[in-house]
Specification:
The chain contains 21 helices and 19 strands. It is of the alpha/beta class and 545 residues long. Helix 6 packs across helix 7 and helix 11 packs antiparallel against helix 13. The chain is elongated. 22% of the residues are buried.
Length: 545
C-alpha cells in the first residue's frame, strides 16, 4: 500500500487564548490527527512537522507556516494537506494559487469536516462553491464593520486605535489626560508665537517636551522621546484636539472634550496652510537646478543637486557626485562638489560663446545655402543675446567634467527646434566642445575657473593700473612719492603698494581689460601682496589665484 504523507495546517485569527497550555491550535491539530488515524487503512501517515499560524488572518497568503507548508509541498515532502478549507483561505483567488501548487506537486487537499477531496473534479466544484460563500461572508462582514465605524464616528464616538497624546480612553469616547494636555497646549502656543514647525521643535527641545511613553502588549516601551517635526505637525493638524473626530475625508463633532478651542484650532490650520504655501512657492523657485540629470564626472557618476544652509539661513545650492549621497560616510577623494549658481552661470556663458562663434551656423548645417546659414546665424545670435540663463541651459544635452576640462554637448532636438530645422540636418560633430578650466577650493566648495570665459571686468583694478602708470611716469619725471601722495590726497603707503601694477606683463594687462583675469586678482589682493617684477613669475603667481 502506498504511504500518503499528511500535513496538518492550523490557524487562528486572533491571539486570544494562544498563551494557554492547550489552545485552539492544539485542538485543531488533535482533531486532524484523529481523522488521519482513522484513515490509516488507506495508508495515511501524519507528518510530525507542525504548520501553525497563530494570530494571523486568512485574508492573505503571507503567513509563515503556510509559506513553509507550500515549500514542503513543492519539495515533494507532503502528499496531502488536511484540515478545513477556511483555515487555509477564504479567498477564491488565493485558493486557486494554493491548488496550482498542490497540482504541480501531485498533492491534494482533504477537509476533515467537509466531505470532498480536491483530487476529484467534484471535490473542486464543491470547494469552489464553499469558497464563494466564504468570500461573500467575509466581504459582507467587512462592509458591516466599515458601516458601523462610519455611523459611530458620525455620532462622535471613539472607535479605537492608538489613543492620541493628551487623552485617555473612556469607553467609546475619550477623557482629557491633564498632564499630557498641558504639553499639547504648549505646542499650540509655541506655533502661534513662532509661526513654523521647525521653530516649535527647537523650542520644544529646549523646554524638554517629550512624546507619550507607551508600553505595548508585548512589554516593549516606545515614546518618551523629543518630538520630531512630523509628530508636531500631526498634533497641530489633528482635529481630535478641537473635540472633533475624523473619518476618511470628513470631520464630525466628537463626544469627547476639546483640548484646544475649535476657533483657535481653525486659525492654526489657516496659519499652517499659509505657511505651507509660502514654503512651497519659495522652495520651488530655489530648488531649480537647471543642469540636473545632465552632469557627469570622469567616473561616469552623475552629479546630483544638493544644498546647505549658512548660519544666517542662506540656502546654498551645489552639484555633487552622487556617490557622496549614495555612499555617505565613506571617503571619496575624487568626488565633486560644485557651487551650482556659479557653474550654471559659466555654462550659460559658454553656450552664448558657442552660438555666436563665427562660422558656427555654417558648420552646424552642412550644405545649406548662404541665405539659410544667415538666417540660422541670426536666430542663434538672437537667442544668445536675449535668452535668459534658463533658456540657454535648456540647450544642454550633457556635460562631462574631469580635472582641468569641461565637455559640453548641446541637445540636437533643442538646437534644431531653435533654428527650425530637422534634427537629422544638424552635423552633430559640432555640437560638442570642451573647455579647459582651473579649480579653486574654498572650504568644501570647488569653483571652476573657465579659461575661456571672462569673469567680468574689474573697474577698480583697471583704474588702479592706470593710476600706477601715471604715478610711475611722475616718479620718472622727478616727483617724490610724498609729493604725489599729497597731490592725490592719498597715503605714501598706498602709492608704494599699487605702483607695482605699472610693471604688469602686457598679456596680464590685456586680460584685466577684457575681464579674463584670475578671480582672486583684485586691488585688495595687490594691497596685501608684492608682485614680482619678472613677467614669468607674475604669470605663475596669478595662475594660483
Amino acid at each position: 500500500m502506498k504511504k500518503i504523507r499528511c500535513a496538518v495546517y492550523t490557524r487562528k485569527s486572533s491571539e486570544d487564548g494562544l498563551e494557554q497550555e492547550f489552545n485552539s491550535l492544539h485542538a485543531q491539530r488533535d482533531a486532524c490527527s484523529a481523522y488521519i488515524t482513522s484513515q490509516k487503512h488507506e495508508g495515511w501517515v501524519m507528518l510530525t512537522d507542525a504548520y501553525d499560524d497563530g494570530g494571523l488572518s486568512g485574508g492573505s497568503l503571507e503567513r509563515p507556516a503556510l509559506q513553509r507548508l507550500m515549500e514542503h509541498v513543492q519539495e515533494g515532502r507532503v502528499d496531502q494537506v488536511v484540515y478545513k478549507i477556511d483555515r487555509l483561505t477564504r479567498s477564491l483567488a488565493d485558493f486557486a494559487k494554493i491548488v496550482d501548487v498542490l497540482d504541480d506537486a501531485g498533492a491534494s487537499f482533504v477537509s476533515v469536516t467537509q466531505s470532498f477531496n480536491t483530487a476529484t473534479s467534484m471535490g473542486r466544484l464543491t470547494l469552489n462553491m464553499l469558497l464563494s460563500f466564504a468570500q461573500f461572508e467575509r466581504e459582507v462582514t467587512a462592509e458591516r464593520i466599515r458601516d458601523k465605524i462610519a455611523a459611530s464616528k458620525r455620532k462622535g464616538l471613539w472607535m479605537g486605535g492608538q489613543v492620541p497624546m493628551g487623552y485617555d480612553p473612556d469607553g467609546r469616547t475619550l477623557k482629557i489626560n491633564e498632564a499630557e494636555a498641558a504639553t499639547i497646549r504648549t505646542l499650540y502656543d509655541l506655533y502661534e508665537r513662532l509661526g513654523t514647525v521647525r521653530a516649535v521643535k527647537a523650542e520644544a527641545d529646549r523646554l524638554g517636551l517629550t512624546s507619550r511613553r507607551r508600553t505595548t502588549t508585548s512589554g516593549q516601551v516606545t515614546g518618551g522621546n523629543p518630538f520630531d517635526r512630523g509628530h508636531i505637525h500631526h498634533i497641530l493638524t489633528n482635529p481630535i484636539y478641537a473635540g472633533r473626530i475624523r473619518h476618511r475625508d470628513k470631520v464630525f463633532e466628537g463626544a469627547h472634550p476639546a483640548i484646544i478651542e475649535p476657533d483657535r484650532w481653525d486659525k492654526v490650520q489657516d496659519q499652517l496652510q499659509a505657511g505651507a504655501a509660502r514654503s512651497r512657492g519659495s522652495s520651488t523657485a530655489r530648488r531649480k537646478s537647471l543642469l540636473c540629470g545632465k552632469l557627469f564626472d570622469e567616473t561616469g557618476d552623475r552629479l546630483t543637486p544638493s544644498h546647505s544652509k549658512t548660519k544666517r539661513g542662506v540656502r546654498l545650492r551645489y552639484y555633487i557626485s552622487h556617490r557622496l549621497v549614495a555612499q555617505a560616510g565613506q571617503a571619496h577623494s575624487g568626488a565633486w562638489r560644485l557651487a551650482a549658481e556659479d557653474l550654471e552661470r559659466k555654462v550659460a556663458k559658454l553656450i552664448q560663446m558657442m552660438l555666436v562663434e563665427h562660422g558656427f551656423a555654417a558648420k552646424l548645417v552642412q550644405g545649406a545655402s548662404a541665405d539659410a546659414i544667415g538666417r540660422h546665424a541670426a536666430k542663434l545670435a538672437a537667442h544668445a543675446v536675449d535668452a535668459d540663463p534658463a533658456k540657454l541651459l535648456g540647450l544642454v544635452g550633457r556635460i562631462d567634467i574631469m580635472p582641468g576640462r569641461l565637455g559640453l554637448r548641446l541637445e540636437p532636438a533643442a538646437l534644431s527646434n531653435l533654428i527650425d530645422i530637422a534634427p537629422d540636418d544638424l552635423d552633430q560633430t559640432y555640437l560638442s566642445t570642451s573647455f579647459p578650466f582651473q579649480l579653486r577650493k574654498r572650504g568644501v566648495e570647488t569653483k571652476i575657473i573657465l579659461n575661456d570665459v571672462p569673469s567680468g571686468t574689474d573697474d577698480t583694478l583697471i583704474r588702479n593700473i592706470a593710476k600706477a602708470h601715471a604715478w610711475f611716469e611722475r616718479i620718472k619725471a622727478g616727483e617724490t612719492v610724498s609729493e604725489i601722495a599729497a597731490s592725490e590726497g592719498t597715503s605714501k603707503r598706498r602709492i608704494q603698494q599699487l605702483v607695482g601694477l605699472a610693471f604688469l606683463a602686457p598679456d596680464i594687462v590685456r586680460d584685466v581689460l577684457e575681464g579674463r583675469q584670475p578671480i582672486g586678482f583684485t586691488s585688495e589682493w595687490c594691497l596685501r601682496h608684492d608682485l614680482p617684477s619678472d613677467w614669468t613669475e607674475q604669470r605663475q603667481l596669478l595662475a594660483t589665484l
